[in-house]
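Handout, page 2. Input:
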Amino acid sequence: MTATTTSAGSDLSDLARSDASLRAFLHGLPGVDQVGAEQRAAMLGTRSIKTSAKAWAIDLAIRMVDLTTLEGADTPGKVRALSAKALRPDPADGSCPPVAAVCVYPSMVPVAASVLAGSAVHLASVATAFPSGQAPLAVKIADTEAAVAAGADEIDMVINRGAFLAGRYREVYDEIVAVKEACEDAHLKVILETGELATYDNVRRASWLAMLAGGDFIKTSTGKVPVAATLPVTLVMLEAVRDFRDTTGRQVGVKPAGGIKTTKDAMKYLVTVNETAGEDWLDPDWFRFGASSLLNDLLMQRTKLTTGVYSGPDYFTLD
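Output:
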């Protein structure tokens, strides 16, 4: 079992000795002021980024994109095209940076790996009975091991929300620890599916639980439920990673996913990152966007800034 220690050297692993100890810790976290969180998120969402700073922010947002396709109709051709786009998002402009990662189902990992091999673009795979998380642990481990063996260097796992909401925190913790071990050297992103957690307090508790169990990132959503990433939820998660680093000395990333479609949306998130967690998280190693259509809008806005001409949505490939 993975232990979490503070920067001062104190051991937090005893928290996971039972559901009762985990519950006492998680329910002892400060409650989230719902009105305050939503008002602050709304206020941060009104901030604007201008001229040269906007150009920098757009390039940063492109570098933070996990370019994603998670559809039952995914084909090898679609995944190869998406992977090529990840490497060179704008073929007409070599100065455009590549994205952070491509995210696909485990069966498509070998296809993406054949295109991304030797590049700096990461290969992420959803696993652990995505999107429901309702499968025996042995199946989740096999799912993870297969994706890593095929070439994934990042795993996006889903927690069992039913177990979490029933208060079976130790069960959720142990599953995350087991999947983390199965990841070997791959980074683990833990999907909370915040749209099903009902309250901001649960979002904070789930964030801490995932981090205590060894998650490298906490991620909002699968994109498969009606409510995906929101700015207030992401703000709560950013506060959690900030406080977790202050407590333990370990930095954890955040990935909002689902529903982030425009450059304006992305700018709101970047402002919120800077104002909540700080500049250390303004890096693809610590903040990602899980998205499919966002990249095209970023590219259109980038073209407008660099050429003065606004390209239509059909100028770039559809994802």
